[in-house]
Structure to design on (81 residues):
């Protein structure tokens, strides 16, 4: 008998971000894009929500305050500090 266990796929952060932008930038539905790129609607929905949180309400990268010991720095989330 063959095993019917599906192996879980892993996606890079870049792939997840690009997939999210297929929805964000084009205005297409999560369902349509998910079918096109063969991922679950649930996964793509999470990626879209996460990317929208990074972009902020104006659609630009949000500023994030990072605490390192006692010093403060402000970084753009998509760029390394």
């Amino acid at each position: 008998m063959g095993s019917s266990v599906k192996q879980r796929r892993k996606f890079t952060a870049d792939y997840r971000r690009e997939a999210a932008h297929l929805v964000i930038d084009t205005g297409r539905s999560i369902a349509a894009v998910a079918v096109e790129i063969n991922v679950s609607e649930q996964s793509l929905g999470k990626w879209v929500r996460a990317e929208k949180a990074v972009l902020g309400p104006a659609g630009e990268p949000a500023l994030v305050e990072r605490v390192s010991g006692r010093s403060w720095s402000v970084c753009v989330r998509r760029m390394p500090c």
In short: Residues 13-76 form one domain. The first helix runs from residue 13 to 24.
